[in-house]
Amino acid sequence: MAAERGEFGRGWGVILAAAAGCGLGLSALPFYGLGPLMTPLGEEFGWSRTEISIAFTFMTLGLLIAGPVIVGRLSDRIGVRAVALASIPLFALTLFGLQFIQQGPEGAPGPVLLWVGYLAMAFLGAGTSPITYTRAVNAWFDRNRGLALGLTLAGTGAMGIILPMILGRVAPEFGWRGGFITLAILAILAWPVVALLLKNAPAVGPQAQAGVAPGATLGEAVKNYRFWALGFAFLILALGIAGLVVHLFPMLTDAGLTPQEAGSIAALIGVGVIVGRVFIGFLVDRLFGPLVAIVVFLVTAVGCVLLADGGIAIAPYAAFLIGFALGAEVDLIAYFTSRYFGMKRYGEIYGWQYGFYGLGAAFAPVLMGALFTAGGGTYTLALHVSAGLCVAACVLLGTLGRYPTFKPEPEAP
């Protein structure tokens, strides 16, 4: 218990800064913000939900490149603090600039400028993603790493509660342009918190011992079947769950709810994210992580089926379960990366694992929109497909096996 109190006593500021950075960063603001702005964008420009959803695809595909190649390597070499502080204002600037988008040039797809803006956001704002912040938290925590990561990434869950309600009121009054300005203001608020509290590495503790942090290199990791099993499991999960977050708001308004009512129910996703991240983080520090993950995602599959067959009355419970699973995803990727591959090249390896997740999340809203159309203008088919994808991912997670043991390497003379 004394060791546990010691970790949190030394690292509480890092958790607070990382939680603020994640909640006001690339993984939260564009993700939770696109749904409430989807309807006003479509009404002004005549864009379909599938077309608007492609913007998120461009952003996550950009992060697939920028995450491991740029941010992951820089975080491993110069530290996460410098990377985050440089990226936050650039991220806010791109959000602010999105208020100026308009119909694409003649002959080009209508929302092409929206797509380009989201792609630019991925490269300029990649340093505000969990790739940077989870590296700092992993360096400060070992015995309580799961809980620390859960508390960190609960920041995105808090934004999942707040943002739909904020934009559900801003968008009807000030339109989608006011929505993007609001997102930009929120993004820049992370900078002073990160500048004051985020630290790269502890002065004491396991990660501060002399020598090189133990673990695998990227080259060693990609030769390990766990790298691919873990990556494809979370890619499939993202395909099944991430699209539900973007489409839940229009799903609810289609059912006859007002934007304010839909925002209140959609906010339950954020509640689920917070509860899921903290509770699951607590459990994986004490139980075998893959088993915990399998149970969580099977329960989520049941929630999707209930939402499909139970209608609007089930929506609040389903929203909570979707958030609970979403809350498990990103921090479990970070936790499993550190446990299965160590910390030697955590930034690069996690960047690729987060990229698998991002690839699934990139196409999830588009898939959901296509299944909405194929289902005759309802989300029943999409929800059943989501449930099936959750089950498929659980099969892959069941192949991961025990955590390996890494020995510290001596520092090069």
Give a description of the structure.
With 413 residues, the protein is an all-alpha fold. It is 78% helix and 0% strand. It has helices at residues 2-23, 29-45, 49-78, 80-97, 112-125, 130-140, 145-188, 190-197, 218-222, 225-254, 259-284, 289-310, 315-341, 346-374, 380-397. α3 packs antiparallel against α4, α10 packs across α14 and α12 (289-310) packs antiparallel against α13 (315-341). The longest helix has 44 residues, at 145-188. The radius of gyration is 20 Å and the shape is globular.
Q: How do the helices and strands line up, and which of them pair or pack?
A:
Layout: H1 2-23, H2 29-45, H3 49-78, H4 80-97, H5 112-125, H6 130-140, H7 145-188, H8 190-197, H9 218-222, H10 225-254, H11 259-284, H12 289-310, H13 315-341, H14 346-374, H15 380-397
Helix pairs in contact: 1-6, 1-7, 1-8, 2-3, 2-7, 2-10, 3-4, 3-5, 3-14, 4-5, 4-6, 4-7, 4-8, 6-7, 6-13, 7-11, 7-13, 10-11, 10-13, 10-14, 10-15, 11-13, 12-13, 12-15, 13-14
